[in-house]
Amino acid sequence: MHPFVYAVHQSVLRDDLIDFDAPILVGFSTGPDSEFLYHYLNHVYRPDLLHLVYVNHHLRPAADLDHELSRVTALGQRHRVNSVDAPITGASGIEARAREARYTEFERIAREYGISQISTGHHYDDHIETILLQLIRGTQRGLRGIAQTKPWGPGILIRPLIHCYKADILAYLDAHQLPYTCDSTNADTQFTRNKIRHTLLPLLQSLNPKIHDRLNTFATYHEGVHDFLDQHHADAYTHIIKQHQHCQIDRHYLIQKPIITQRYLLLHMAQHVTNTPANHQHIQTILDLANTPPFPKYTQLPGHVDVTIQTETLSLKRTR
C-alpha cells in the first residue's frame, strides 16, 4: 500500500471510523476527492459491500457530464452504483439547494438498502473553507467546520479524508495516472465557497502562511465551548418533545430561561429537524416572535422547516 493511502487507512483505524464488515454508501462525483476516496475504499473493502451514489444536478457542461457518466457506468460493472437525476434550477442558493438534494438522495438510498455508514470525500481544505463560510454566514452552532463523523439519517456520516490536503490528493492521483473530472464550475466565483477558495484564502495565506492550522485551532476551541454548553443544557433538552422531523417545546418554559439557554434549545430543535444550520438572525427572529403576543405566529427556517408559535407551544416541523 502506498504511504499516502496507508496514512489514510491508519487514521481510519486509529479513530475507528468504519466497520469494514458492513456495507458503506459513498457519495461519488468523479471529482478528485471522491475518486481518491473510492480508490482507498476499493483497497480495503469487499466489492459487494461498496455502494456508490452519483447525483447529477445538471449544472455542469455537457463535456464534463459525458466523462462522468461513462465513469459511473464503468464502475457499475464492479459495484452497486445508484445514479440519480436531481436537477437544480434558478439562480439563487444553488450550492445549498444542491447539497440538500444530494443528502436527501443519500438518505433515501441508505434507507432503501439498509446501509448505516455514509462516506463523503471532504478533505482538510474543505474543512477550512467551511469554517470561513460559517463565520461569514453567522452560523449559530459554532465555527466547527466539517466534522470527521456525525450522526446522520439512518446512521453515521464519515469523512475519512478530513485530515488530507487537496494538493496531496491531486499529487497522488496524478502520479498514479488515476482518472478524475475537474469541475469547471469550481472556478466560478459567483459561488461563495469558490470566492473563499480562490480569493479570500490566498489573501489570508499571504498574511499568515499557517492560516489553515490557525483556523482549525480556532474552530476546535469554539467547538469545545459549544460541546460544554450542550452538556450544560442536557436537562433543558429533555423538555423538548421530539418526533420524526418534528419537535415541540412549552413556550412559557422557553421564554423564562436565560437567553443563552433559549438559543441552545432552539438550535437543538433545529438540528433535530434539518441538516441546514440556523444562523443568528433565524434564531433571533423566532425568539422575538415567541416573546411578542398575540399568537399564533409563523416563520420558516432554511431546509423547509415551518415554525409555529402558539400561546402554549413552539414547534418546528420539516415539510419535505
Brief descriptors of the model:
alpha/beta; 320 residues; 49% helix; six-stranded mixed sheet; 16% strand; five-stranded antiparallel sheet; Uridine Diphospho-n-acetylenolpyruvylglucosamine Reductase, domain 3; Rossmann fold
Provide a quick synopsis of the model.
This protein is α/β, with parallel strands linked by helices and 320 residues long.
Could you please describe the fold and organization of this structure?
There is one protein chain. With 320 residues, this protein is of the alpha/beta class. The protein has 2 domains: 3-207, 3-Layer(aba) Sandwich (Rossmann fold), CATH 3.40.50.620; 234-318, Uridine Diphospho-n-acetylenolpyruvylglucosamine Reductase, domain 3. The chain is 49% helix and 16% strand. The protein contains 12 helices and 11 strands. Strands 3-2-1-4-6-5 form a 6-stranded mixed β-sheet, with helices on both faces. A 5-stranded antiparallel β-sheet has the order 7-8-11-10-9. A hairpin with a 2-residue loop joins strand 5 (149-152) and strand 6. Helix 2 packs across helix 6 (166-175) and helix 11 crosses helix 12. It is globular, with a radius of gyration of 21 Å. The N and C termini lie far apart (44 Å). The relative contact order is 0.11. The mean pLDDT is 91.
